[in-house]
What we know:
The complex is a heterotrimer of chains A (289), B (472) and C (234).
Chain A: H1 2-22, H2 24-27, H3 56-67, E1 73-83, E2 86-99, E3 106-114, E4 122-126, E5 129-134, E6 139-143, H4 152-160, H5 163-166, E7 167-178, E8 184-194, E9 203-209, E10 215-221, E11 227-239, E12 242-252, E13 258-269
Antiparallel strand pairs in A: 1-2, 1-13, 2-3, 3-4, 4-5, 5-6, 7-8, 8-9, 9-10, 10-11, 11-12, 12-13
Chain B: H1 3-13, H2 15-54, E1 57-61, H3 64-67, H4 80-89, E2 97-112, E3 117-126, H5 128-135, E4 158-162, H6 163-168, H7 172-175, H8 205-213, E5 226-232, E6 238-249, H9 254-257, E7 260-264, H10 265-273, E8 282-287, H11 293-305, E9 313-317, H12 318-321, H13 323-361, H14 363-372, H15 376-410, E10 415-416, E11 425-426, H16 435-461, H17 465-470
Chain C: E1 4-15, E2 18-30, E3 35-39, H1 46-53, E4 61-66, E5 69-70, H2 76-86, E6 87-90, H3 102-112, H4 117-131, H5 146-157, E7 164-168, H6 176-193, E8 196-200, H7 204-209, E9 212-217, E10 220-226
Parallel strand pairs in C: 3-8, 3-9, 6-7, 7-8
Antiparallel strand pairs in C: 1-2, 1-4, 4-5, 9-10
Helix pairs in contact in C: 3-4, 3-5, 4-5, 5-6
Amino acid sequence: MCKRAATLERACRAARHGWREHGRRAAAAAAMALTVTVAVAVANAAETAADVPVDAQQVLAASDAIRNPSRPFALTTTLIEYHKGRETDTSTLQIYAKADGASGQYRNLIRFAAPSRDVNKLMLKNGNDLWFYDPSSQASVRISPRQRLLGQAANGDVVTVNLARDYRAQLVGEEDIDDGDGIPRRCRKLALAAVSPDVTYNHIEIWIDAVNSHPVKAKFYAESGQLLKTAYYRRYQRELDADRPTETVIIDGLDRQWVTIMRYTHYAWRDVPESWLQRDYLPRFKPEE
Amino acid sequence: MTTIALAVRNLLRNRRRSLATVLAMVIGSVSILLFGGYVQNIICGLQTDYVRGGGHLALQHRDYFLYGSGDPTAYGIAGYAHVIDVIRHDPVLAPLLTVATPTLDFGGIAGNFAAGASRTIFASGVVVDDQNAMQRWNDYGFPGAPEVLSLTGTGADAAVIGTGVARVLRLCGPLHVANCPEPTAVPTGSDWQGGSELHGQQLPEDIGRLATRDAPSDDGAVDDTRIELLAATTTGAPNVARLRVTKAVDLGVKEADDNFVGLHLPTAQRLLYGSAIPQVTSISLQLHHTDQIPQARQRLDELLATTLHNVPLAVYDFRALNPYYGQTVGMFTAIFGFIAVLIGAIVLFTVGNTMNAAIVERTVEIGTLRAMGLRRAGIRRLFVWEALLLGAVGALAGMLVALLVAALINHSGLTWTPPGRIDPIHLHVRVWGEWIMLSGTALGLLTVAMLSAWWPARRAARLPVVEALRHV
Amino acid sequence: MDPLILTNVTKTYRLDKVEVPALREVNLRIHPHCFTVLSGSSGSGKTTLLNLVGCIDRPDSGEICVAGEPIGQLSDDALTDFRLRHIGFIFQNFNLLPVLTAYENIEYPLLLTRTRAAARKNRVSELLDAVGLTHHAQHWPGQLSGGQRQRVAIARALATAPALVLADEPTANLDSQTGAAIIALMRTMQRDFQATFVFSSHDPRVLAEADDAVLLQDGRVTSREQRRPQPVTP
């Protein structure tokens, strides 16, 4: 008893300082890491391939290309959170995304545009590293994986993934499922196992439209097999040379009453300077719009 | 007629005064010994608690003690099974050791997501049988049956949580936690800070249907005591363990109650390391006796330099890991010292007063002795011996009375609840067996008695003979 | 050899700021083996003289020679040892140690001189016998009469066979009959043990018994009367 109590002294101090500050609230509304990945493999337009043997990895890559524009870009995300059926929070974020040339890993610079209390706060996501910068205190803080277990920071990882690069795909079968708008779609169900050690989700189930390679639905799992997130990709529109899902609905796996809707608007090709994606540059960043 | 015999006779001259002085010394001596015994019992009890909970020594990753609280899993011990094996079979350490057991301590989030409640916690994965073995340590002979961990005999997915955690996770009912009033404001997730005009709008129906579409199919049965434990693995990915809480425990310290989750070591390892090689954050070693620590440490240092040189470990004493222990011991030692000095001063004055009165009464006698041919030193010796005899009688009587009173207290059935505990324990005063304290007190009393007589005796010896003889 | 020689001895007391000369340039020789009595009114200096002779006080100037030993240069310890061996005291108030029996009181000086047990026993028995208190040996002083106590004191004074026995008003606290007996005893002891007795006394019987009478007045020796011839030193 005493040992636990004693070592807990340290933990408690860490708990009080660490968790609350960068937990749900702060990192929340934030970490809209709209990491958009550029598929390393060439984005094959999905050929209807009833006759051609299906290469699961290619299918996956194709769905990646639909979610992620091939060149550096910017967009605006409106994020709405619901708990127990009632809206609890909303934010608007400006995202600048660029893939790293060598590794293919996506890096995002996120600027908060709304609500007013969070305006001009910045987040920088670089693979597994997440940095948060507050202009009023001029402090930049690294948010560790432990501190991203809950809150919007966790959601960020759902949209972030460069699936083909980080996962090995296996075709499970073909299924008819209802998509995010309730319309039945014929999908290929892929089981993805993580190959990269740094990914957030141990394995993923993804349903990709058999015809046009649109990702329809994805379920994200932890190592223990616990479902962490379910995502639906909706409202496909023509943006930046492809049909892309302009709305993602994320339903938390642990707390099913927690639903987040992300709407993407103002897509634009954008030259994102390397300097923007450095942590040291955060205090000097100035939005240009 | 030796000086001692003369001193004895002189002391018996005024029995009442001699007795009063002895009584003062006895009371002083008894006070010191009983307080010391009480303190000693507390310290032994505290030590016993720490040794039962975490052993005498802990082996940890070299940097874990200072930096591990920020990221425990980064500072784990990789080949811990081998280390424990080496230690258990070491010819020097094996006879000293009672238990060698690994522990995995880490931070995470415990959630009862069905009720929408979660809390950051500090978890401890343990080997239950080893921990129960450690609980049986009782080198100081405390009464009572050894504690048995609440995780004993439970399944791999069992967990024990603090009562504060149980309250936050709304598990008061199934776990029978008392003092669980309904909170006044029920938050529905993130804080209501205001400012959002879309406050409270309802979730669009189509999306609502999406959410309910994939209702959990895993278990249909509603299990009242299920919680999820969320933690980051070594690679930073989230992982979840589904645990069944068997008990909510009271740890005696509110911060502990509000934070604690206990589970089986393999379960904790699966949560943090997944399919990778499991590690632990600490190896606890419990010895038969606390005074074997230096010997064990020396041998461990040798092993770390030789057989285990490729494992970056550091060895910590339970005192280093629990500064509270040293602080408590220090505080009580200081208080004890203060009281001892205080009582010593009182004895000093009492005996000095007695001596002074005796000298004044015997001034003519002193003069006579000097005239007869007794040297100054002889006069001093006479009075110092009288004081010493008083001191000896006082010390001995004090010791005996203290032992008697201690025995009475120990069998009286009185109880008290020390801080950091929930149940009261028997009031116990350790006087018998505390030879250092007993002899130290006796010696101290003798010294004080002798010192207190020295100045008056010196004065007596220096009296001019003529004046002494003339004294009325 | 004269047991006591005083040469130009002066002693002055200071009471607050007043100086009181107790002895003024006293020159005296005491003859061995006899009763010498110092007499004079109070304030004449006889007690002071006795104290100086008894080596329990020091003169301001002059020399004192006791038993051939000049005592002026001796340290306190040496002086104390000297007293132990060469001087015996008999006090007006007997001054026996109340915690010791009669036997033990007489024995005490012999313990200080570290005499062997057998020799001690012999000496004490001899003295007890001489003062006639053999049957009271185990009595406490509190159980003895004034006269008996003084006898014990006399025996004690002679325990170490000192050359000089000093008695300050030894009969002052005794009734006349007892006093006479004590004087007779002292005379006997003086003869039997070959000691020199020096008294200070008012008592006319003491004076009557004296071999040598010294009169002191205002710190000086004003007259000296030697009544009996010096006994031959054996």
